[in-house]
Amino acid sequence: MPEPLTIRPAARDDVPHLVDWNAAMAQETEAKTLDRAVLARGVEGVFDEPRRGFYLVAERDGMPVGSLLVTYEWSDWRCGDFWWIQSVYVVPAARRGGVFRALYAAVRDKARAAGAVGLRLYVETENQRAQRTYAELGMEPCHYFMYEEALPRT
């Protein structure tokens, strides 16, 4: 039986893990190699501007084993914030051990306490395992497609 999980807010000391995990997640899910300097600035930007969101870290036996990022989207239709779950990563040795479920439960509790109107995330269309996990947690597919246009950095 694995040790119990502790979920805590991320701190700046976690930035190296968060950068490593985001880079690994991009490689695993999309075969993308991220520019680590840009990624590090992006992670640090969450700590610099708390209005952007926050990271949570899962620990088992004092060791970080996973994390996620929460960002906010204002909904004028519902007069409240959706909390978007992003940048989810669980170290390979801890997968299928309840890490994401514990992180999700912590986010849901915080969102309810903050008066958020819902939780959202996006998932790769081929990632059936993640989709099953999200459904088991009570999430449902939406009727929206996601579109994107990358803009050049100035």
Outline the secondary-structure elements:
Blueprint: E1 5-9, H1 15-30, H2 36-48, E2 54-60, E3 63-75, E4 80-90, H3 99-114, E5 118-121, H4 128-136
Parallel strand pairs: 4-5
Antiparallel strand pairs: 1-2, 2-3, 3-4
Helix pairs in contact: 1-2
Please give a handful of descriptors for the protein shown.
single chain; alpha+beta; 5-stranded mixed β-sheet; 5 strands; globular
Biggest sheet statistics: 5 strands, mixed
Computed over alpha carbons, the radius of gyration is 16 Å
Overall strand count: 5
Structural class: alpha+beta
Widest sheet: strand ordering: 1-2-3-4-5
Along the chain, the helix and strand elements come as: EHHEEEHEH
Mean pLDDT: 93
Counting H and I runs of at least 4 residues, what is the number of helices?
Answer: 4
Low-confidence stretches: none
The best one-word shape is: globular
Distance linking N and C termini: 51 Å
Helix content: 25-40%
Strand composition percent: 25-35%
Description:
There is one protein chain. The chain is an alpha+beta fold. About 35% of the residues lie in helices and about 25% in strands. It contains 4 helices and 5 strands, in the order E-H-H-E-E-E-H-E-H. It has a 5-stranded mixed beta sheet with strand order 1-2-3-4-5. Helix 3 links the parallel strand 4 (about 80-90) and strand 5. Helix 1 crosses helix 2 (about 35-50). The longest helix has 16 residues, at about 15-30. The chain starts with a strand and ends in an 18-residue tail after the last helix.
